[in-house]
Amino acid sequence: MGLTLEEALDILEINNVDALTESDIDKYKRKAFIRWHPDKVEHTGDKNKIELYNAKSKLIEPAVVVIKKYLKGEYDPNQKFDDTNATYNYQDPIEVLR
């Protein structure tokens, strides 16, 4: 799996990366977890929608990593971020929302 900066910004719904600070990322991360939480659509029984929300929620942490690397100057916007060896501090979405 690889994410470009544009994909990461889209997942977190960030419009202006130039005005972004590292402390803002947590706000966008929390908002994205609320937006893409699979429990929001589970009651519909629509398997396609549930799979979409599951997939999007799993991309939030990698998106945060990409954007933080970009802000630190460690990321080239033209490359795909390869996270196959990356480890994430996965948090239960319920815990993030508290």
Fold blueprint:
Blueprint: E1 2-3, H1 5-11, H2 22-35, H3 39-42, H4 47-58, H5 60-71, E2 81-82, H6 93-97
Antiparallel strand pairs: 1-2
Give keywords.
single chain, about 100 residues, mainly alpha, two-stranded antiparallel ribbon, about 55% helix
Order of helices and strands: EHHHHHEH
Mean pLDDT: 83
Total helical elements = 6
Strand content: under 5%
* Secondary structural class: mainly alpha
* Largest beta sheet: strand ordering: 1-2
Provide a concise account of the structure shown:
With 98 residues, this protein is mostly helical.
What does this structure look like?
This protein is mainly alpha-helical and 98 residues long. The protein contains 6 helices and 2 strands. The chain has a two-stranded antiparallel sheet with strand order 1-2. The termini are far apart. The model has no long low-confidence stretch (mean pLDDT 83).
